[in-house]
Amino acid sequence: MKTNQFIGSVLLIAALAITISAKAQNDNAKNKAYADRYNNSDVIVSSAPGHVREHIATNWKGKYYEMMLLNNQMTDFYVEGEKIPEAKWGEYKDIIAGIREQLRKDKIQAKKDQEQAMRDEEQAKRDQEQAKLDQEQARKDQEEARRDQQQAVHDQEQAQRDQIQARKDQEQAEEDQRMMKQMISDLVSDKIIPDADSLHDLTINEEEMTVNGIKQPEDVFKKYRDKYPRFSKGSFSYGNSGNSQSIHLSSDNDK
């Protein structure tokens, strides 16, 4: 009698242990579900050709659901960490369909986002390359602007020198005109020509002097050569056609 009581007690303890273990596993699953309820995921694993496993975990309208699929066929279904028997899946068919439809849309959107991300990346590369080209062009433009600025300064300095030279040339031309009038006056005084209007042409250099095509005597030449060295040092000519007068002096005589 005592032996039967002992065996009965052992069986009762074992049954309680199994019940407690099952409850603990169920509680652990629920605790995990509460911990993961906001971690939506869709994991697909292909262990072999034609053998694709998928684990879907999502928070759908305030509840946490998990689905295990094999080759796109559901094998396990959990609600808040509690495994739902296949016989009751029909009660959740709208939820299951809604989750899978949303997942399908999410995959389509994810693919579009990925494609857009690739396009954005390619555009970013093109923009970066264009930015490099623009930077190089800007550097060239800056260098060109610097050269233009230097040239402008050089041109301005040259213009100032030209202006100074032009003023000097004008002053020298006025001085040459004054000396020419003085020479004509001397020619009249020396009775080489009767008056200023009668002088048509005159040349003088370091070797001779001519008036109206007539070579002048040596003493006359020396007198005018020494008095007007600017004209005699080189080649000087004067012409008077009545309507206009011209003076030409070779550049190597300028002083």
User: How many β strands by DSSP?
Assistant: 10
- SSE string, helices as H and strands as E: HEEEEEHEEEHHEE
Q: Percentage of helical residues?
A: 55-70%
How much of the sequence is in beta strands? 15-25%
Structural class: alpha+beta
Described by the principal axes of the CA atoms, the overall outline is rod-shaped
- Average predicted confidence as pLDDT: 85
Q: Which strands sit side by side, in order, in the main sheet?
A: 1-2-3-4-5
Regions with little confidence, pLDDT below 50 for 5+ residues = 5-20
CA-CA gap between termini: 154 Å
Count of DSSP helices?
A: 4
Main sheet record: 5 strands, antiparallel
Query: What is the radius of gyration computed over CA atoms, rounded to a whole number of angstroms?
Result: 58 Å
Topology at a glance:
Elements: H1 2-36, E1 41-48, E2 51-60, E3 63-70, E4 73-79, E5 82-83, H2 93-189, E6 201-205, E7 209-211, E8 214-215, H3 218-227, H4 229-232, E9 235-240, E10 245-249
Antiparallel strand pairs: 1-2, 2-3, 3-4, 4-5, 6-7, 6-9, 7-8, 9-10
3D structure, described in words:
There is one protein chain. Residues 5-20 have low confidence and may be disordered. With 255 residues, this protein is of the alpha+beta class. Helices cover 57% and strands 22% of the residues. The chain is built from 4 helices and 10 strands, in the order H-E-E-E-E-E-H-E-E-E-H-H-E-E. The protein has helices spanning 2-36, 93-189, 218-227, 229-232, and strands at residues 41-48, 51-60, 63-70, 73-79, 82-83, 201-205, 209-211, 214-215, 235-240, 245-249.
